[in-house]
């Protein structure tokens, strides 16, 4: 049904602010919350884009992948930080790409990697607690050290230069947004890392036991072209490292701010999985996604014209009071059946969600088994980025269990 045939469809309210202004980047929950409360769909005048802001209309809209496609997203222009496959594809090409990637990021590989992730997590936490109570930066000492080891190992990448991945995120997390000095600085910071990723996604750089080699094996089986395989590998790179480190560090910040939730998890360890889900609802690593209206559509009773580019505001939707009671509280015993959109929804749901969940679960379990209390040991510092939510510093005090 189009808006023209439906009398009660309204035009989107106009938002005159700028979701990419520094004020908004510094306090994204406040900024995106204000936009969300204007209506389920808002017109962002400054960029001539629409935004879908509330949980239920967004979830419904994301099912409508034929009319709300991905081939022409906001701020799209060719860029090395934005692989052309997967996120920017529609069916039928998206279907092939997704099935290849899902075949290596699920199933037997999960069983294989769980043992390895657990061993690495336990080794790291034992090392950190070797001398008793300790103050650490949960971003660098826990999230980065752990993910920088297990994620490239899982892919089968060389050891040399891995630390450059830390800078790659500056590109990935800032390419989605308007051109500005801020963006140029971030992309410049990431240039060397981009070069490293470029070089290390070729077939001859892959460890035979890694996921990269498994993807290239599908080329030999005639399932896809060589360059397609490389782009898929790049896509896993671009999406899988910084999102996971950011989410893990944010989770420890949430526990640091809410030490009673750690005590609750100790009393009820069966909440471990829910604790992680709640932490990525509360602090989603990905603030925005994008779509384009291939036809006129009505979302939440509001017209979005054909040709419109659309922001999906995941972060604001995660705090939608229509979906969650007291959404600004971090509560690990929340009813998680309500789900969240922090891994997206619909055909573009995060291809690495099972891997990210596994990485987080193994680390959180290792910490839970060893740590009696977590408290903030200073003021955390946010990492400021166009499209992401994360921290660059999360000082916490860990006291080991006796
Ligand atoms: C907590 C960590 C993560 C978060 C919060 C996250 C978030 C997201 C979101 C929101 C999307 C949807 C984009 C959209 O619809 O526009 C997405 C897609 C994707 N993610 Fe993740 N991600 C995480 C970890 C990972 C990991 C570990 C990998 C790879 C191992 C990965 C690979 C991908 C890929 C390939 C896509 C594109 C899927 C498609 O377009 O069909 N992600 N992710």
Automatic annotation (TrEMBL):
Entry's EC annotation: 1.14.-.-
GO molecular function term, any single one: oxidoreductase activity, acting on paired donors, with incorporation or reduction of molecular oxygen
Keywords: Heme, Iron, Metal-binding, Monooxygenase, Oxidoreductase
Record-linked InterPro entries: Cyt_P450 (IPR001128), Cyt_P450_B (IPR002397), Cyt_P450_CS (IPR017972), Cyt_P450_sf (IPR036396)
Keyword Oxidoreductase part of the UniProt annotation: yes
Protein name: Cytochrome P450 144
Family: Belongs to the cytochrome P450 family.
Source organism of the structure: Corynebacterium comes
Transmembrane segments: none
Pfam short name (any one): p450
């Amino acid at each position: 049904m189009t808006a023209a045939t439906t009398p009660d469809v309204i035009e989107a309210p106009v938002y005159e602010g700028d979701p990419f202004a520094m004020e908004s980047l510094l306090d994204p929950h406040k900024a995106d919350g204000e936009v969300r409360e204007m209506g389920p769909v808002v017109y962002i005048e400054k960029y001539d884009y629409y935004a879908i802001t509330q949980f239920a209309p967004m979830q419904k809209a994301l099912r409508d992948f034929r009319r709300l496609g991905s081939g022409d997203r906001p701020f799209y222009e060719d860029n090395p930080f934005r692989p052309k496959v997967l996120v920017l594809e529609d069916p039928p090409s998206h279907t092939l790409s997704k099935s290849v990637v899902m075949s290596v990021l699920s199933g037997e590989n999960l069983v294989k990697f769980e043992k390895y992730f657990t061993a690495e997590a336990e080794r790291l936490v034992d090392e950190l607690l070797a001398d008793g109570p300790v103050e650490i930066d949960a971003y660098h000492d826990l999230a980065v050290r752990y993910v920088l080891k297990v994620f490239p190992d899982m892919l089968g990448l060389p050891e040399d230069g891995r630390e450059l991945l830390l800078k790659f995120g500056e590109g990935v997390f800032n390419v989605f947004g308007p051109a500005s000095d801020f963006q140029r600085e971030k992309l410049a910071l990431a240039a060397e890392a981009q070069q490293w990723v470029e070089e290390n996604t070729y077939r001859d750089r892959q460890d035979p036991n890694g996921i990269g080699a498994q993807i290239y094996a599908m080329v030999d089986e005639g399932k896809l072209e060589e360059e397609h395989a490389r782009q898929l590998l790049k896509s896993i790179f671009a999406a899988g490292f910084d999102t996971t480190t950011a989410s893990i560090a944010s989770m420890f910040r949430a526990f640091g701010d809410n030490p009673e939730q750690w005590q609750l998890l100790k009393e009820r360890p069966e909440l471990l999985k829910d604790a992680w889900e709640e932490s990525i609802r509360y602090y989603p690593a990905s603030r925005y996604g994008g779509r384009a209206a291939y036809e006129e559509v009505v979302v939440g009773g509001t017209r979005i014209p054909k040709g419109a580019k659309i922001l999906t505001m995941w972060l604001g939707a995660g705090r939608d009071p229509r979906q969650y009671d007291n959404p600004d509280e971090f509560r690990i015993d929340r009813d998680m059946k309500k789900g969240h959109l922090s891994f997206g929804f619909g055909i573009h749901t995060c291809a690495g969600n099972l891997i990210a969940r596994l990485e987080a679960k193994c680390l959180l379990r290792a910490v839970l088994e060893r740590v009696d209390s977590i408290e903030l040991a200073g003021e955390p510092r946010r990492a400021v980025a166009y499209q992401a939510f994360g921290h660059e510093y999360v000082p916490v005090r860990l006291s080991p269990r006796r």
